[in-house]
User: What shape does this take?
Amino acid sequence: MSNINYDYIQNYVNQLIPKSEGILAELEGYAKENHVPIITPDVAAFLSILIKSTNAKKILEIGTAIGYSAILMGRAAGDNFKITTIEKNQEMIDLASKNIKAAGYDNNINILSGDASEILQSIDDNYDMIFIDAAKGQYMDFLRLSFDKLKIGGLFICDNVLFRGMVAERSLLIRRKITIVKRLKRFLSYISNHEAMDTVVIPMGDGVSISMKKKEAVIDD
Ligand code: SAH
Ligand code: MG
Assistant: This one.
């Protein structure tokens, strides 16, 4: 299946997770039908727990798509949250705006339109958490451009870091993904060994990395 975990483990764990309701359930249906790669249910549950347990209220997201993860994170964050989410695909932005409005979050969730590596340079703000779920070849750039916008103690979380197992196992690697996989491996090694953060990579969904910022640092890779 995802090549990240045994199917029997994945299936067992997933069936334990209560089904979503309301708009989140609707968006899951839409994503499935239209092949939009939203976060998987285990990652969704995990993100919710991280947000609640760290009391994150101000969140930066890269990769909005239809707004599913932004709405999910908003639900977890409770009252008075602010999410800034960056998306470059106009069709997705239109869908996300509509969905965010339907969720009643148009005052809390702000979509910034454009390529994140450009948009990030114009953001001067400080966040409790940063969630990256966009072009995997650019994760290093996203880290470099956003680390100073994360508070000390805040979490920097990335989705899809194991990329269908290709990052860990050569025989799974498809030729046209070689560059992305190389970049992801370099990125994972970098965040795992940098003195300014503590990192763990979890084989959940398509692979999730979590780094806790310990101090200010220039990301110089
Ligand atoms: N986080 C969403 C899914 C995001 S899918 C969810 O779980 O609900 C990845 C999205 O990232 C796509 O919509 C794609 O258009 C966007 N994206 C990819 N690279 C980007 C970049 N460099 N800047 C902004 N958006 C990007
Ligand atoms: Mg993802």
